[in-house]
């Protein structure tokens, strides 16, 4: 495997699609499955846990489907994360939020925190799944390089995308999942304050990321390093 393509050290990128001499279309083909699955399954996880906790809203609206078309937001699911993935930067995006009826949950405060936590946990599981894809690509690279190299590229991209989205969503800024997890552990007054901040949450998040005040890459790199070390050391 080319050293410039795959590197488990936490202070360097794990992959670089440009070094594979891929054109824009090829890069999009490599990045599309990890991005779509990361965001789609994240939302399905929310709905599935909500169902287990007593709320059938997501199921009734057909949002437990693995069909990406039921979850895609053209800007948040395709345009924003796609551009960030191709041109570099911290990858984030969003889908159509899965509806959750707070009042239908058996233990609303606790269950809402569990529903929120399910999204980032699904991203962690997907990152491990993409590590297996990368391992398969590495195995096939010798006898079938035409198949092995794309699988490696897609697999490591899947690790990166899912770790980034998982870490980002745990930030306690509404409407990110971390704010709902935190609200489940704090007095009700804290949840009310977060609800007031939510309309401005995305703007606050973008400003913090763009200014460098919120730097999540050390955490992302540490988690990615652990995954790559476990599978490839």
Helix-strand blueprint:
Blueprint (H helix, E strand, L loop, with lengths): L23 H29 L4 H4 L13 H14 L20 H34 L3 H25 L7 H9 L2 H10 L3 H11 L5 H16 L1
Task: Describe this structure as you would to a colleague.
- α1 packs across α3, α1 packs antiparallel against α4 and α6 packs antiparallel against α7.
- Helix content is 65%, strand content 0%.
- It is globular and about 60 Å long.
- It has 9 helices and no strands.
- It starts with 23 loop residues before the first helix and ends with a helix.
- The N terminus is likely disordered.
- The chain has one domain.
- It is mostly helical.
- The longest helix has 34 residues.
Keywords:
globular; 9 helices; single chain
How much helicity do the residues have?
A: 55-70%
Number of DSSP helical runs: 9
What is the CA-atom radius of gyration, in angstroms?
Answer: 18 Å
Q: How many runs of DSSP E, i.e. beta strands?
A: 0
Shape: globular
Structural class: mainly alpha
Ranges where pLDDT stays below 50 over 5 or more residues in a row are 1-19
How much is the average pLDDT? 84
Number of domains: 1
Major beta-sheet overview = none
Short note summarizing the structure:
This protein has nine helices and no strands. The protein is mainly alpha-helical and 233 residues long.
């Amino acid at each position: 495997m080319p050293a410039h393509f795959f590197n488990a050290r936490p202070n360097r990128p794990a992959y670089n699609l440009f070094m594979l001499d891929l054109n824009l279309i090829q890069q999009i083909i490599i990045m599309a499955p990890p991005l779509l699955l990361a965001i789609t399954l994240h939302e399905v996880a929310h709905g599935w846990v909500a169902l287990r906790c007593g709320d059938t809203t997501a199921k009734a609206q057909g949002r437990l489907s693995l069909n990406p078309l039921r979850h895609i937001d053209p800007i948040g699911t395709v345009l924003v994360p796609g551009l960030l993935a191709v041109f570099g930067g911290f990858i984030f995006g969003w889908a159509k939020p899965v509806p959750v009826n707070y009042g239908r949950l058996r233990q609303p405060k606790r269950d809402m925190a569990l529903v929120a936590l399910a999204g980032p946990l699904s991203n962690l599981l997907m990152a491990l799944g993409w590590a297996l894809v990368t391992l398969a690509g590495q195995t096939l690279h010798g006898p079938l390089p035409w198949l092995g190299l794309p699988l490696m590229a897609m697999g490591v991209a899947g690790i990166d995308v899912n770790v980034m989205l998982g870490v980002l969503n745990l930030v306690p800024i509404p409407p990110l999942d971390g704010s709902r997890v935190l609200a489940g552990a704090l007095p009700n007054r804290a949840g009310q304050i977060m609800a007031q901040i939510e309309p401005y949450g995305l703007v606050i998040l973008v400003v913090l990321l763009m200014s460098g005040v919120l730097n999540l890459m050390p955490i992302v790199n540490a988690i990615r390093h652990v995954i790559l070390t476990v599978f490839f050391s």
